Structure formats: C-alpha cells, structure tokens
Amino acid sequence: MIITSSVATWKDCGSSSNYPLCVMALYHSKLRASSLKMEPFTVSYDQRSEFLKLSYLHSFQHSNVKVRHSLNPRITRTRLHEPHALVISNEHPQNADFPRNYSRKEKKPFPIPIVELRRAARERLKKSKGQPKGRVPPPKKGLIVQSLLPLAYDVFNARITLINNLRKLLKVVPVHACGWCDEIHVGLEGHPFKSCKGKRATLRNGLHQWTNAAIEDVLVPVEAYHLYDRLGKRITHEERFSILQIPAVMELCIQAGVHIPEYPTKRRRKPIIRIGKREFADADESDLPEPLLEVPLKPLLTEISISEAVAPANEEEKTLLAEETLRAWEKMRKGAKRLMQMYRVRACGYCPEVHVGPSGHKAQNCGAHKHQQRNGQHGWQSAVLDDLIPPRYVWHVPDVVGLPLRRELRNFYGQAPAVVEICFQAGAAVPDQYKSTMRLDIGIPSSVKEAEMAV
Q1: What would you report as the CA-atom Rg of the chain, rounded to the nearest whole angstrom?
Q2: Which residues of 314-328 are buried (b: 16+ CB within 10 A; e: fewer)?
Q3: How far apart, in Å, are the Cα atoms of 292 and each of 145, 148, 257, 267?
Q4: Measured between alpha carbons, how far apart are the two ends of the chain, in Å?
Q5: pLDDT digit string (tens) for 25-61?
Q6: Do 420 and 403 meet the contact criterion of CB atoms below 8 Å apart?
Q7: pTM of the model
Q8: Please, what is the Cα angle at 223 between 222 and 224, to 5 degrees?
Q9: I want to staple 450 with a disulfide (CB 3.0 to 4.6 A). Which of 136, 221, 445, 454 is the partner?
Q10: DSSP assignment, residue 83?
C-alpha cells in the first residue's frame, strides 16, 4: 500500500460558521493516525477566511500527525459564499530515484553545464567594463579564511570519529563485500540480486561471492597530493612519486588552516602580489613580528586500530554509538561542502582522481576509457561533494531478522549510503533526507502475485 499526500476541496460545506468543523471532520474521518506512520503534513488554507480558527485544530492533539500553520495578521474582508480549500502536502517526497551510476565509458557531467558557465562569464565581462575590480577571496590571495578555521578542525575530528566508530560497529553489524566487484551489503547475508560486474561474472550468472567487509569498503578511500604551497607550481608527471598522498578530506582541512606537524604547509600573512595571470610574488613580511609557533586551534583526534576498537556491550550502548556515528557523518559532509565553496577542489571527469587546489596536477596517470587519446591526462572539472566523499549505496533491508531480500521484489526495495544503513540497523533514527531513497513509507508486497497487482 502506497500512501501519498492529496489535495482535497470541499465546496459542499457551505458558507456557515460551522465550515471549519466540517472540514476537520471530513479530514479526521479519513485519517487513521493511530495505526499509520505518516510524515509531517502542512495544512494550508484560505487566510482570507474569518471563520477558520486555531481552536478547531484540537482534534489532532491525540494523533501522531504534526500540523504546522502560519497566520497572516492582516485579514481582509471577503464574501462569505466563496469556496474554501484545505491543501494537505507532504514536506518530503515519499520515494526518489537512486543516484545514477555512470559508465566507465562516459564522462561525468559538469556540476554546472558548460553553456551556463560561458553565459555567466559573458555577463560578468559586460558588467565589469568600466567598473573597479571586485574583491578577491582570501584563498586566491594566499591567505586562509579565519572564520572557517574552527569548521576545518570540526571536519577533521568528525572524520576521525566516524572511522573509529565504524570500526566498533563493524564488530556487531554484519557487512558483506563481493570478492569480484566493489558492491557491499549490510545484513545477515548478502543479497541475491544478479548485479555483479566483476571478472568472470557471466560464468557466475551475475551472482556475488560475499566475504567479510572492511572499513575501506564502507568509506571509499579518496586520496590527493599534499601541497606545501597551494598556489605554487602544478605537480608535474615526474614528481608524481616524490609527493606524498593523503586522504582528500584531510588535505582540504589542512589547506583550510588545520595544523598537523607531519604535513607542513606554507602560511602567508600578507596577500600575494600578482604579476601576470599565472605569475605572482610573495609580499615582504619583514615588517611583521616573528611568527609564533603554530599551535592547533583544537585538540586533534587520532585513529584507533581494529584491535583497539571495542564493540558496544549492550543494545543501549550500540544505539548511542550509532547515533554518534551518524552525527559525525553528517557533520563531516556538511562541513566539507562549506569548505569546498571557498577552497577549490578539482575532480577528473573520467576517473575517481581528486585534487585539492585551484588547478589539477599534470600527472598522466588517468587510466579511464580512451586515456590513450588524452595521453593519460586527467579531464579536470569542478568537484562536487560526492567526488570528495563518495557515498557507497547499499540495499536497504526493511526487516533485519525477518525474511531476506527477494530477487522478484527488487523494484520495491530502497537504497541508502552504507554508513546510514549500518547506523540504522544498529538502532539510530534515519534523517529525513535519506527516507526518500530508502523508501521507508512504501509497503513491500508479500508475494510476486501481490507485486504484479501494484500500480
């Protein structure tokens, strides 16, 4: 059974003063809030009416439906015989399509279409004629944004907290990984879907061979070159092995101001002096006092090994750990997205390579489709959050201890990022933004015959 929001208009209630009671009676008679789990609803009505009072909403006090209202203090007179409407709309979609998996033979689209980028550039050129140059953001001048410095430390610590908590949860929540492809599954046993695209998949008829998953299967490792000077010369092909690679989120936090002694970076205290489009010189800082020894703004967390990770002792501790893990996941993603708006991150349109900096490196190590035509060079473009922190989607299991997933009912199951599914099975509540792809409010047919009857 699929429950959706609807729009209903009653014109037969008349224009008497009992109109609000009539509307609420019609609505309350069709809503079984005590037996159905429904999302919060927004009740909109004609604000010009003088008869719809908030006192008539008392019938919702014993239900699990949240009624949100907004009143305009200015009430205009209107004719009493005008029809009124009660519009009931759901704030979140009931289901949504899964993110598209791009083939290895096609290029990822630009976050903003190239036509729109060219049109915006022409508009900026027209407006800039005869006008003084606009303000340049601090990263382009070689400085760091002081207001984003605490956020960078929070993102760094959220990533460490996420890794440590996942190592503890993996000891109590079963996670399986295919030995031939990069697909994983969270549940007591692997799913039966024939979706394996690894080596010799045709001999296995597309079935997966499940093994125990590791932390690297849940959190996809995305590394980037560590830059001592983010405005310096681009990394050449000959330097690709001499420069250290670290996790891309960590490199983003370092460039945003996080101080880690193991990864030194250049900090300027004065803006650079532009000589040409790609040439600049550092400003003279001799008149400034000697720089103090850089101290971390906040204490930095450290990762723990698998042997040091202790599994939660009981269900309550497991639920609290899952909720903390989910908060760290959201904090890391939201903070990284905000940092990316100020500190540019580049991604290859053909392969998963990521570079944190104003322009990509020159290493010719792209092995994607038709890389020979590009001489192994990357097709750099602006990165999105999923390029920096790719969420590995897994099938959502509606009932962990119940019946396993059935191959014939695949279209009725939802998907969620692996971190969210692990925390959900450990007892955490699902955030609203993931409910549409997980399809939590859609009934699963009990048989194939019942599935064929669904529209």
Answers
A1: 28
A2: eeeebbebbbebbbb
A3: 19, 21, 15, 12
A4: 10
A5: 434 444 433 334 444 444 444 444 443 343 334 444 4
A6: no
A7: 0.77
A8: 130
A9: 445
A10: -
Q: Give CA–CA dist 294/299, Å, rounded.
A: 13
**355, 346 Cβ separation under 8 angstroms:** yes
For residue 193, what pLDDT is reported? 94
Q: Which residue has the tokens 């190592």?
A: 167
What pLDDT, in 10s, does the model give residues 138-184? 999 899 999 999 999 999 999 999 999 999 999 999 999 999 999 99
DSSP 444: P
> Cα(140)–Cα(169) distance, rounded to whole angstroms?
41
CA distances from 258 to 222, 297, 385 (A): 19, 8, 20
Of 87 and 275, the one with more pLDDT:
275
Would you give the DSSP letter of residue 7?
Answer: E
Q: What angle, 0 to 180 degrees and rounded to 10, lies between the N-to-C axes of helices 149-169 and 418-425? A: 60
With beta carbons less than 8 A apart as the criterion, state whether 380 and 355 touch: yes
Beta-ladder partners of 273: 281
Domains of the chain: which residue ranges?
Answer: 138-221+245-284+294-341+396-454
CA-CA distance, 445 to 11, in Å (whole number)? 37
Residue 209 in contact with residue 191, Cβ under 8 Å?
no
Gap between the Cα atoms of 416 and 163, Å rounded = 18
Contact 223, 245 (CB under 8 A): yes
Q: Estimate to the nearest angstrom the gap between the alpha carbon of 117 and the chain centroid.
A: 24
Q: Picking from 56-65, 126-135, 238-247, 302-311, which range would have the lowest pLDDT averaged per residue?
A: 56-65
Alpha-carbon span 217 to 208, nearest angstrom:
15
* Tens-digit pLDDT profile for residues 317-335: 999 999 999 999 999 999 9
Q: Evaluate whether 279 touches 260 at the Cβ level (below 8 Å).
A: no
Joined together, the tokens standing for residue 280 give: 């600049």
- In Å, the largest CA–CA distance within the chain is 84
CA 164 remoteness from chain centre: 20
What residues have CB less than 8 Å from 102, skipping those under 6 apart? 108
The CA-CA-CA angle for residues 90, 96, 99, to 5°, reads 150
Highest-pLDDT range among 1-10, 195-204, 291-300: 195-204
* pLDDT for residue 356: 96
CA 281 to chain centre: 39
